[in-house]
Protein: 3-hydroxyacyl-CoA dehydrogenase family protein
Organism: Streptomyces pulveraceus
Amino acid sequence: MEFTTVGVVGAGVMGVGVAQNLAQRGHQVVLVDISDEVLDNARRELRNSLRAYALFNKGSGVDPAAVFEKIEFTTDYELLAKADFVVENVTEDWGIKQQVYERIDRIVRPDVVFAVNTSAISITRVGSVTTRPDRVIGMHFMNPVPMKPMVEVIRGHHTTPETIDTARRFLAGMGKECIVVEDVPGFVSNRVLMLTINEAAFLVQDGVAPAADVDRIFQTCFDHKMGPLETADLIGLDTILKSVEVLYESFNDSKYRPAPLLKKMVAAGLLGRKSGEGFHKYH
């Protein structure tokens, strides 16, 4: 199968990144979200990201205007009928994801694979609300998507080897490799990362060290490019909180209890880079 047109559902940070990566590799993209306001913001983010990419990758041959033209921004889910592959990137909320999949399952061709871009939600559970559980697979992209060469791919209970092969070919077309893991909450990356970030938030909350020092320890002692709290700001503290809550609910283990400081910051709108302030300021 050729992936000429790819549907991307959800025009937040991850959805824009996936759409950009796909368009840069020559795909036509239908980028769907529920409001024109979200799509207008996505257009701005995409223009900024493309300018930055062209600036820092001068030999790449990427033409920002040509890439932008390959992406169709729309609130009309029916346009997904022409998609040859779908990547879903909506918020980490099961109720919302369930509604999205029940909706797109009726629109998208039965042979098309659904890739769930999630950090914690069960791929098997997503597949259960569709008529194609064998064609549902997890694709945990990393941010910023165009710059990251690896994707964590998750095999649901019903996901077939053929779907995994299709996913590998799709990702290779994006210039990415993948590692396939099993469908348990948080998979590999976020089962470790979210616990680390949550514990780092407890450190700040308990006055053990300020956020800058927590991050500096990880950067200088362990050669991490970013500390856990700077990473949290990049991902978005609202996404972090939802992911930790999914882990807490899934495992019923107190070690995943969300830090009260994390919950307070999200309630205050301190979401990280996208809001201008999280554990660090970005003004």
